[in-house]
Specification:
The complex is a heterodimer.
Chain A (H helix, E strand, L loop, with lengths): L1 E3 L2 E3 L5 E9 L1 H4 L9 E2 L10 H19 L9 E5 L6 H10 L3 E3 L6 H14 L5 E8 L1 H8 L15 E2 L2 E8 L7 E3 L5 E3 L3 E7 L14 H20 L8 E4 L3 H14 L4 H7 E3 H4 L11 E2 L1 H17 L5 E9 L14 E10 L1
Parallel strand pairs in A: 3-4, 5-6, 5-7, 8-15, 13-14, 13-16
Antiparallel strand pairs in A: 1-2, 2-12, 3-9, 7-9, 10-11, 12-17, 16-17
Helix pairs in contact in A: 2-3, 6-7
Chain B lengths: L1 H20 L7 H28 L4 H21 L3 H8 L1 H4 L2 H14 L5 H8 L4 H24 L4
Helix pairs in contact in B: 2-3, 3-6, 6-7
The chains are: A alpha/beta, B mainly alpha.
């Protein structure tokens, strides 16, 4: 394992041998519906509480990722996962039923790449051959914890984002052993490539002083810019090294600011236009009344485990940089007048 | 030195907010105000019409307004329970939040939400989580204004 400042280069390039993504009802009506492995018809998922529903979503994603990768529960050496709830309720309660060595992660909405980097460290360092990672969020659990009761009649400002009801999980392995081919619509088979984790950049917490909890996008963008620029510097790469660069949940406003800041940093404008996108702007249609786009751990988790992973397996994308972005505010910090610290971790994936 | 740093941080945050504002669409204040005025006005006109009907059918003014308030509260509660109120409020805004319907909604929404945590500590504990701060501030300010009025009255100014 090599290291340069913030960036870790994985010597053995751990394989993502399988992935599974779940979207809620609203996400299933969105543009990414065909990339999700499963969409809920009912956001309660047959459970009595929203928290149980989120936990069940995460559990389903984890077990399905293991099953698709052909691993049993006993083979998994560790499970890394996180969510947005206090004391990591969804993850811990999911782990209660799984009997896999468990490490809870919290990076707000950046949890997916945080777990992906640490999971890859475990596999690359040969501490474990199979590590399953994941993250989840649920609109109804996040809303009641961070904002208002669901039925309360209030108007959301245009900068507000919609917490995605979604979960994503990936199985990291020291050797590729996932499915080798996939049937496509016309009945023929396409050979699937291996997706491997090549490098990861651990982000710094950056606080630009945004205090409005309805301005998550602009609060997180400086952190995303910082991580991306440091990644470029550490790796000596340019934007055009990647076919796609995805941030987690900056939303429409954050994405515009990100583009502007990157341009200001002297990066090629055409590359930014064609290669950069944001999961928060991809997961919903604009007429779905989500204002500035999607957010939440599940937004990036499900997009990476669904859209990005499948496209890479099919060979439609060769090199992708994924960056989940998190707003590290707590339920009390805005009331104490604190601004919102942001964070972003980047992971470089290659398909070969 | 530390103070200088603090000021610098404040400046950066101010400059960034200003910069980020350029990308942030403003709420449609004018449209929202018109919508709130029309819907809120219609709601109040309907309530007034109802009150007049009650008075016409032989109730005292006091009874009639009590009936109307009860009907408004019950309607708002029912609509909240059916999950329609938040959709209406999304468009009507202050038009349904400022009248007593908003108060009813702010009580029923947490009651529904926290039912899962039990009747006593869930519903009981969180019932006033939205209405509580409004009540406390409203009652406190009404007492303060009352005291000022009383003093002015005693001094012979009022």
């Amino acid at each position: 394992m090599g290291r340069k400042r913030q960036t870790i280069f994985f010597e053995n390039k751990p394989y993502i041998s399988s992935a599974y993504s779940i979207g809620g009802k609203k996400e299933g009506d969105g543009p990414l519906r065909k990339w999700f492995d499963m969409c809920l018809n009912d956001d309660t998922f047959g459970e009595k509480t929203w928290e149980k529903a989120e936990s069940k979503m995460l559990k389903t994603a984890m077990t399905e990722a293991l099953r698709r990768g052909g691993r049993s529960v006993e083979e998994a050496g560790a499970m890394l996962s996180g969510d947005l709830l206090n004391q990591l309720m969804s993850s811990s309660f999911m782990a209660r039923d799984m009997h896999i060595p468990f490490l809870g992660m919290y990076g707000a909405c950046s949890t997916m790449t945080e777990s992906l980097i640490l999971g890859s460290v475990l596999v690359d360092g040969r501490y474990s051959d199979d590590v399953v990672i994941g993250a989840s969020s649920h609109y109804c659990t996040a809303e009641r914890q961070f904002r208002m009761p669901l039925e309360h009649g209030n108007q959301r400002p245009p900068s507000a984002q919609w917490t995605a009801t979604a979960a994503g999980a990936m199985l990291l392995s020291s050797c590729g052993r996932g499915e080798a081919a996939e049937a496509i619509d016309d009945g023929s088979y396409i050979e699937l490539r291996d997706v491997r984790v090549e490098a990861g950049t651990i982000g710094k917490v950056i606080d630009a002083g945004v205090k409005d909890a309805n301005q998550m996008g602009s609060a997180m963008t400086p952190a995303a810019v910082d991580t991306l620029l440091n990644h470029m510097e550490d790796t000596g790469r340019d934007l055009d090294h990647y076919d796609l660069i995805l941030t987690g949940d900056l939303g429409f406003i954050g994405k515009d600011i990100m583009r502007d800041l990157l341009e200001g940093a002297g990066l090629n404008k055409a590359d930014i236009e064609t290669r950069y996108d944001d999961c928060g702007t991809m997961i919903y249609e604009s007429q779905q009344d989500v204002h500035s786009g999607g957010s939440g751990c599940g937004c990036s988790a499900s997009t990476f485990a669904g859209y990005v992973y499948k496209k890479m397996r099919r060979g439609e994308l060769d090199r992708v940089l994924i960056m989940s972005t998190g707003a590290l505010l707590s339920t009390i910090s805005p009331f104490q007048g604190e601004s919102i610290p942001g964070i972003a971790h980047a992971v470089s994936l290659v398909s070969e | 030195m530390d103070k200088k740093k603090q000021i610098e941080k404040k400046d950066i945050s101010k400059a960034y907010s200003k910069y980020a504002d350029r990308f942030t669409p403003k709420p449609k204040y004018f449209k929202n105000i018109i919508k709130a005025f029309v819907i809120g006005g219609a709601l109040c006109a309907a309530a007034m019409w109802l009150e007049n009907k009650f008075i016409a059918s032989g109730n005292s003014q006091e009874d009639a307004s009590a009936y109307v308030v009860i009907i408004l509260i019950m309607a708002a509660q029912l609509l909240t329970g059916l999950g329609v109120f938040d959709t209406i409020a999304k468009h009507a805004g202050a038009g349904v939040i400022v009248p007593i319907t908003g108060f009813a909604n702010s009580m029923v929404a947490p009651a529904l939400e926290y039912k899962k945590e039990g009747v006593v500590l869930g519903v009981g504990g969180k019932l006033f989580s939205l209405a509580g701060p409004v009540l406390v501030c409203g009652i406190t300010s009404s007492i303060l204004v009352g005291l000022i009025y009383l003093m002015l009255d005693k001094l012979g100014i009022g």
